[in-house]
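stuck on this:

***
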Amino acid sequence: MQFTLKRGLAIAAGLTLAFGLAACAPSPAASDTEGDATAAEGTFASGSADKLIFAVLPDHEGADQDAQPIADWIAEITGKEVELFQATDYTAVVQGLAADQIDIAQISAFTYYQAQNAGADIEPIGAQITQEGAEPGYFSVAVRNPAAADVTSLADFADQPVCFVNPTSTSGFAVPMGGLLEAGVTVADDDRLFGEEHDLNAKKVAEGTDCQVGFAQDIDADPLITSGELVEVERVQVPAAPIVLQAALPQDVKDQLFDALADSTQSDLTDAGVELNEFLTDGWFGFGAVDDAYYDLIRTLCTEIADEVEACRA
């Protein structure tokens, strides 16, 4: 069963979605920065004004390689070297943003919430759009192994192992926990299994050895649903994954990134001479401009699930 964006997280956590997209309006550009940045001009994670550090979540196998065209695009936009931050897990990205070791990151809604709670002063440039004409957002999909024929709703996830993605994943843990609690299901700690990456988690449920029910984002769950290896139980649309930057970056660099990335499409990337790879062609159409208030829904969700989700208590 598919739910609309405005109903989605109301089903997941008894909330009403106030979508409120708003374009960002940076202030006038500062003077060009040369050499190492000073505090007055802004700061860079590397200490050099010629380099930007870009991070993505390791939420699927090959995430860094899949993000390379975005890194190349940022390099074209800014004229700077862009170095990919090799994150081992979600927490490394949260800590890297909080410690000013990352300039730009493409993260999840929940990771954005966590990074701010950890002290990161970051701003969303835009949020991922997955197909032409769509609003920012994607789906958290509850799935079951075909052998678990008695599972027809989230209430049937009770008293069995559940495969989640990662304790800091939006669509693979936070939103699913909200939905389960709303359905009256509390998952014991021993029954919470984590596949760490969405594609691997979907495969674990399809294999049915460790768990016969679980969650993954739509781009990873849908191919296995189509092939008959998984059966969809429910899906909920969630706030889109943002691309964010450090507020401390020089204003001229921030202006370049806001102007180019917010309200962008695939054609903007290819017009810059950057070739799309299969991952972006299949699951990324562009970024829609959003502001910080767009993620208030995640903050509200965390108040609902804090007793069950440690990451919401940070």
